[in-house]
Amino acid sequence: MQMDFHYYATYAAAYLAGYSHEESMLICYSAQFVDECSKTYLKSIKGPLSAATTQLQEEMADARTDLSGIQDITRIWASFHFLPRDLYRNPKRRCSRAYRRKYRLICGPNGELAAETVRLARGKGLEAAGIAMHVIADTWAHQYFAGTPSVVINNVNEYFYEIICRDGKKEEHRIRFNHNPATVDNIEKMEYTCTVFQNSENSVMNLGHGRAGHFPDYSFARYRYMPAWADFNEVVKDNPEDYILAFTQMMYALKYLKGDIEEFDVEKYDMDSIGPYRDEIFGILCKRQTDACVEWKAFGEKLSGYQVGDFDINKYKDEYLTADEDSKSKTVLGRFILAAMSQKSMVTNRIYKSGNRAAGYSIDIGEKGFRGIKDYARLLQEKESDR
Question: What is each CA distance from 247 to 8, 282, 286, 382, in whole angstroms?
Fold first, then answer.
């Protein structure tokens, strides 16, 4: 997903879930900040690099693909953008143990890790809620891809067709991909930019949905294609329908985080609360455009009556930089960092416990907190003393 959904649509979901305008702004800021909190940004604020929730293109260009490098990539992308649906079920019948473990990292909604992500955020503040909303939203947009470099999972071939509904009839048009990063996606010509094919299993070009470019992130996208993990058998994806489920699942999750609901379970959606707005929301999702920020912003402002300010990556930077060492963890960025490390440690630990070393090793934070993460110890001192 993109900023239009992670920021503006998340604001609308939070407001409809009963949060105030100010609370909704902080939730949607944190949700979008997951796509911004790179090691480069953390260096600029002298923050712990282990709190990175994304990697910039220039960082990926320099990323190592040895065991340690792959584990670092997987910790970030599997924890925040391609949450595995089922770490114990293998979609392939015949493959080696190493590949079987990789296939279990394929992203999808309504898995046990999705439930743990939401439950982990409860009582941890609005920043943690925003992170959880980003993760939940991406399980819908990024399903069928994995947050680890893998040509056998993430590659797609030339059989890739967009399905367009016009006047009640379905049309299918073959999508053309190019590899020039300087070009922009052209939805009228159905030309989209993707990564260059590399037959190396661990090439960063084969991370996530890079082989399909940004197309899987667009809310209007309806398509059928033949993914590598399915032995190039056809899979059909309907983003407008999936994004409606994502939006209403976020509302349900936010009500749980707010304390209005006692338990959080997967496959539950707050459809009732969007009743008066369903057609409007669906209209935004179905509009063929690469950026729906204007429409989602207008919708959120109509709901609340407040202005929804544009996202500013540095909005809380000065607060963090000027805080003394004992107070940094009480700032917005400090709380985000704590929540991000909590999420990353949980997911990494669950992957490790499943017998998979793709993300490395992590302690069980439910039992031991953050002890053992060296470059995170400074922010933890206050957390431990507050207990």
Answer: 11, 11, 14, 35
- The predicted-structure confidence for 200-218, as pLDDT tens digits, reads as follows 888 999 998 988 889 999 9
What's the rounded Cα separation, in Å, for the pair 212 and 195?
A: 8
Instruction: Record the pTM.
Output: 0.92
One domain for residues 342 and 211? no
d(CA 248, CA 148): 28
Q: Which domain, by its residues, includes 191?
A: 151-238
User: Could you tell me whether strands 156-166 and 222-227 are parallel, antiparallel, or unpaired per DSSP bridges?
Assistant: antiparallel
Q: Give the CA dihedral 229, 133, 125, 318, nearest 10 degrees.
A: 90
> What is the pLDDT, as a whole number, of residue 38?
97
233 and 273 fall within a common domain: no
Cβ-in-10-Å burial (0-12, 13-18, 19+) of 120 comes to buried
Element containing residue 365 per DSSP (H, E): helix 365-368
Percentage of the chain with pLDDT > 90?
69
